[in-house]
Amino acid sequence: MAEIVPFANVRQGSPAHGRALGPAEEHWRDPIAIIGMNARLPMSGTLAQYWDNLAACRDCVSPRPAGRAGDEAGVAEAGFLDAIDAFDAAFFGISADEAAMMDPLQRLALESAWHCIEDAGYRAADVKRLETGVFFATGKSDYEELLYRDDIEPGATFATGVATSVIPNRISFALGLTGPSLAIDSACSGSLAALHVAAQSIRNGDCAVALVGAVNLILSPTLSRSLDKEGALSPDCRTRSFDAAGNGYARGEGAVTLLLKRRAQAESDGDHIYGLLTGSAISHGGRANWLTAPNTIGQEQLILTAWRRAGVDPRTLGYIEAHGTGTSIGDPIEFNAIRGAYTKLAGSQENDAAPQRCAIGSVKANIGHIEAASGLAGVVKVLLAMRHGRIPGNPHLRMVNPMCRTQGTPFHFARETGSWERLHDADGKPLPYRAGVSAFGFGGAYGHVVVEEYPQPGVRDDVGADAAPVLPILPLSAKDPERLRRYAGQLSSFVQEIATGNAGQGSGTDEAVALEDLLYTFQTGRAFLPSRVAFIARDWSSLQVALARFAAGQAHPAVIAVDGVIRQDTPEDEMEALSLRFARQWVEGAKVDFANLYAPGQRRRVAAPGYPFAPTRFWFSDRKTAPVGLQADGM
Fold first, then answer.
1. Torsion angle of alpha carbons 123, 126, 130, 135, nearest 10°?
2. CB contact set of 70 (below 8 Å; sequence gap of 6+)
3. Model confidence over 555-569: pLDDT tens digits?
4. Cα(178)–Cα(211) distance, integer angstroms
5. Which pTM value belongs to this model?
């Protein structure tokens, strides 16, 4: 067992924890569950790829992809995404002309939001029936600049196509969501500000569920050139967070979306919970030496507020995902703010023998600085690290900045990927993993959140004797037969990973998954589209074979399709007879209400592969659209 920390789990308001929260702040005691995630990041089209790159301390900064229309970037290398001109406009009922005038930020946000909802095991129609808010961090529209540069005549869709305020509104409109729909721009702290506002909106009753996201692309050289002249960018396009050689940061691109719900409601609904948001704060640093200069006092106070609201002793924090832009002055200022906040809440532990239990790192060293989306990229990193019980190292950390003095503190900088030590309270009870995540905007707007591990349950076998059994049917649908076969192929690989014990939830984890939960998720948590097929699933192995056969265009007895061979054999039992009847009705286009078969919360939802969008190129300079040769990352 890991070393027991010599204190009990400190409650809010104790002397070691600073002031108690007032009555108006008691709503902070309501944890927010993160029940869905989607991330498309440099060299990472899926959560599993993202984790693999983090665990391998991989440098994902690379030269600009060849053939990017209209993209001069202004930097030699960055954390670029592939196929950012690809979009499945038809899936969302958007015309080709409108899609060509839409900023790719809107397209990325729309597809990411859809996949996030699917990852949570829901249909868009499900969240439509709730008061669902949409909170997206935004920034400068490079696409608008390209349109002006090419002297494009403004049409009817120009205004909505380039307005950053439309990014969340586009999602709300497309999915029919009626909760708050806000674009938040506080520069690089934007996504944590959006997360904070979304959590507060849920606690205040403004919405029951919230989509929180951020997108960032580099389509024009203007901002890069300005940042370079300011001295913010690294000459060799590498972010050396907290390293003595830190001389600026690399830019990056990405899209991240989370789905939030109150913890109690998520548990009642049988949701898959990645982790808990237990505290958050946003602020401004006030007056500093100049507009873009970081403020130690402001950052320290922000962190203090977030930790107090989370109601945890800072000595139980095992990791800090720092902003870490890799500058010789900015990194020490941030470290001293973390150190100061810790000292004020936990008391001074200035001795060289103090165990260094809390690691500090920054994902910017891996993927570059993705600006508005950087905070959420850090949150996803933390959630995956908690799931794996490992803290990723920083790829460019060779010699720690000498002004970041960790001696006599509980902090150390993560050089290599290693185990996340499980801490225990004074009674020997294991504590959940806890971490803080920071993001700071260059105008002085700050954000910090506290994330806590959620204990993952094993395979569920306690659904109750009175509960209806899950029909052994996996229904799958798409817009067309080609997408349907591709979807089956992706799902076949996913099922094979589960069957061989190499993964669990589709994000590179080892969680246990019940076959009944996967079937339940696809029966009740996927949109029913025109092109359909159903698979009779008695066990993991037979399901994987049936999916693979269908994806390859081959017949299989467990595949029920409109143009397939109708089974003539006698069903083994009444359940199989019922399943075959439901499957045949469904593939022929009937409205089969699978959800009505189950009581609320009877099964758990499973995070599984989402819909494989058809990537088609849309760009303002093209006179017509053309299919792209390769599928976009993660689609």
1. 0
2. 146, 150, 219, 619, 620, 621
3. 898 899 877 555 545
4. 12
5. 0.91
